[in-house]
Amino acid sequence: MxxxxxxxxxxxxxSRALFNFEEENRVFERGNDRAYVELQRQxxxxxxxxxxxxxxxxxxxxxxxxEVQRVEVVVLSRNDPVSGMRVFRSCKAHGLAxxxxxxxxxxxxxxxxxxxxxxxxxLSANEDDVxxxxxxxxxxxxxxxxxVQAGDENPTEVRIAFDGDAVLFSDEAExxxxxxxxxxxxxxxxxxxxLPLPDGPFKPLLAALHRLQQTEATGMRIRTALVTARSAPxxxxxxxxxxxxxxxxxxxxxxxxxxKGAFLREFEPDFFFDDQTGHVQSAAAHVPxxxxxxxxxxxxx
Length: 301
What we know:
Elements: E1 9-13, H1 15-18, H2 22-29, H3 33-42, H4 54-61, E2 71-77, H5 81-93, E3 101-104, H6 114-117, E4 121-124, H7 127-135, E5 140-143, E6 157-162, H8 172-180, H9 182-191, H10 203-213, E7 221-228, H11 235-245, E8 251-254, H12 261-267, E9 271-274, H13 277-284, E10 289-291
Parallel strand pairs: 1-2, 1-4, 2-3, 4-5, 6-7, 6-9, 7-8, 9-10
Antiparallel strand pairs: 5-10
Helix pairs in contact: 2-3, 8-9, 12-13
């Protein structure tokens, strides 16, 4: 019987998102590919330090049991095969031995392989790869490698925080806000409170997490949060949209323009997704963060 990834949560992740390869990457960015490969070869038996998305991956894999594999993590990287050896050895050294699949393209665009994987999430430090993945319809975010790493206070919970507009939802309302201002935005959202917002790029991930959340046999659970600049009365349309999807989030923060960083620090997510670079950069000082290159805020001006 053929092996299948059907009915699993599939996370595709680059080597720099999973491990701290920043020193090696600086050698690569100087244009010396040969020196980069040689450095990785010299360090084959030196486990790389955990990267920004390590905690997220480690906790998601804890949903697997010997009997049932619910989560699949695949390394999808522009790295060369030699560097791939180090990635897998680092996985084993850090207790991620169940990460056994990887695609290493040696500089070529890797995002096309998201299709055969059926990925629910792609995390990469490469902005172009993330942009192309989103254009193909896959939830994807550029990992801010300078982000603070997740804490270890919640070992049995995967905590994930999402912005709303242009992330979970479409940027329909955000376009009105940017074109006509806050008052027009509030009127529009109040008038359409009962009309669900169109899907955003990360709805498939939230739906997949919702399915995984029904699993309790492993002792792990998922806690999600909506962290948005919306405030009352515009909050109603966001909640109504989630209700129309039959998906509930555990926490919702309607901050009305307040800085998200301090609130995220209290929530302690393993990862936070937002479409606006300012919000992501602010959040990265407190929690692992990723930029979703989606919506009007990311269009060329």
